[in-house]
Write a structure and sequence with these properties.
Helices cover 40% and strands 16% of the residues. With 425 residues, the chain is an alpha/beta fold. The chain has two domains: 226 residues, Glycogen Phosphorylase B (Rossmann fold); 164 residues, Glycogen Phosphorylase B (Rossmann fold, 3-Layer(aba) Sandwich), CATH 3.40.50.2000. The strands form two sheets. It has a seven-stranded parallel β-sheet, covered by helices on one side. Strands 10-9-8-11-12-13 form a six-stranded parallel β-sheet, sandwiched between helices. The protein is globular. InterPro entries: Glyco_trans_4-like_N.
Length: 425
Amino acid sequence: MPKKALIITYYWPPAGGPGVQRWLKFVKYLPDFDVQPIVYVPENPSYPMLDNTLLEEIPKEVTILKQPINEPYKLAEFFSKQSSKTISSGVIPKEKKQTVMQQLMLYVRGNYFIPDARKAWVKPSVTYLSEYIKKHHIQTVITTGPPHSIHLIGLQLKATLGVKWIADFRDPWTTIGYHKKLKLSTSAAQKHEHMEKQVLSTADHILVTSENTKKEFATKSNQPITVITNGYDYQPLPKTKKDRSFSLAHIGSLLSERNPKVLWKVLGKLIKEDKGFKDAFVLKLIGVVSDDVLQEIRKFIPENNIEIVGYVNHIEALVSQRQSQLLLMIEIDSEDTKAIIPGKLFEYMVAETPIIAVGPQDSDVEHILKATNTGRYFGYNAETELKVYLRSCFEDYRNSALSTHPIGLQQYSRKALTKKLAELI
């Protein structure tokens, strides 16, 4: 008889963005490993992005439980819909460019909604799920964050029912980049640290998506910690042809600090120095892009060489990955972001398109790219190296020789990763 696992998550279709992909795919493959997933999600969530195509990927046989949630973002939209949407999507402007409303919302969010704006869902969820778990003999509860308030549901269910509890961290808690921007008081910061410690020391098992996060959490907890990265899934896609232009595509959100001026500068120089490069090159920006980043790009790159696409659904994103000549991945240049592995990395790796990544040295992304031979990684000061490599890629493009030769990608398939999860359950 299959083991039952109750998965508690905030992000679920029709939510768009990378946060929904991880557990949607686990749910898809868990039955193949004799685990019956039951998914608990909010009934009326305030998602910053929607992708209705993901609804088609929910297995028809899976049980979905829903309960209402009260979120302050809906009230905030009454005062400023744009500010609310911007902050809830994670694109936080630089402090000197924040409006008074944005500053107020960040302060309230950081100091009055601890650990996050979905905390009001904890108490009613514990009440509802306690009865469901007892009635249906659930053996394992899994919580996934962010939002990290989801882990508080697991914490209370563990305390009252003694169920086996696995806490999955798609991102770190107190060391994630935006945490420092929440204008936290000393008291609020201490409350976050206390909650984080409670969760890490109480969960029976902790899941993380990177080796760097595992190292961080190992200093805060004696509980077992396992790395299960995000991954890729095979999906039928329309036939695609490579762009005729020499396209460099960034797919996903470009936050204010995800802004490698060295790259924009190098591209600007190549455009000025080489007419062939200027005529062929296109920087494709697919997804939400902050005004700060756009302003910096436009300092160096002419408007004719920029294509702003905006947000697209998941299938369109996968097609764009295969059409582009090069794929761009950018992370904030910070010690805290070494542990961040964007879910799109693994989709990039199977797109048969070379990857150029810019971020902090010695990151998990750097190690994965090197190990799989799927791209090149550069620091924020690597001007000469970037210029040489981009010129080399352009020559390969002109000779129809721009390609990749990946190795060892099977370990990152969603099914292989789900097998690893099922063994823990």
